[in-house]
Hints:
- By secondary structure, the chain is mostly helical.
- It has six helices and no strands.
- The chain has one domain (26-109): Endonuclease III, domain 1 (Orthogonal Bundle).
- The N and C termini lie far apart (37 Å).
Amino acid sequence: MVRCPWCESSDLYRKYHDEEWGKSVYDDRTHFEFLVLESAQSGLSWITILKKRENYRVEYDNFNPDIVALYDENKILKMLENPGIVRYRKKIESSINNAKEFLKIQKEFG
């Protein structure tokens, strides 16, 4: 397999490159997952986010936007204590808002 040079620095990058990068996504939950992860990545390297991905899956209820949209201040405070995710309040708050908007779009367009 021919790989892009950027992914050769780690097994995690290679797996992402080979199985996900550049592939079409048709599943809403996967779309929401990437919305959350790519928003968290802002200002950081993608490998940083990939290393934290499993923690995100747990903390974000497997990227279920119906659940994430209901997160409250107590959940935000709990998330801010988790070193397994990017602990930046504005990114967490925006992911909750994005869940709400995601559900509106889903409702309108299917």
